[in-house]
Amino acid sequence: MKTLNEWYLQGMSQNEYIASMQRNKEEMLGVYNEFQLEDTFKASLQELQAAGLRALILTADWCGDAMVNLPIFMRIANEALIESRYFIRDENLDLMDKYLTNGTSRSIPIIVLIDKDGNEVVKWGPRAPEAQRLADELFGSLPPKGTPEFEEAFKKAIPSFQQNLTKNKQLWSAIASDLVHTIKAQSVC
Question: pTM above 0.85?
Fold first, then answer.
């Protein structure tokens, strides 16, 4: 069984991950280019720079949540000097299955921060509470999953959800706040 340090060494760099993307690349980079961290977040994150935190990120380019969460985390990681490695979910199920949502779901993205010794100090994902509320509002009224009606209704709802993810700057701010507060609350400086 691999340690988190061993996993980390096998991951893709941020640039390698972005270069490998076949879907949602332009949308993710659009969020990255438009999103700016608040100054209060920057000051808080700079306090983490000496901690030597590293991130393992489970993701996939088809994931709408990753499309918005990852560029925001990239800005956070840049400010806190967190080196990151990316893992495609379906190619790394042994790692993914350590971080199931509600013990059953392979929801992504999952961001795991480790310290210098490879100990897990923070786990975040797949969504900030505000993004979860948005998803619940949009998808909560759909027919039961697994029915033919669900697929059609889901396909109709996705564009609205993705529009919110890629354009709603208040949502971006809420995601950043949740990420920063989670990192700061669980990290050892």
Answer: yes
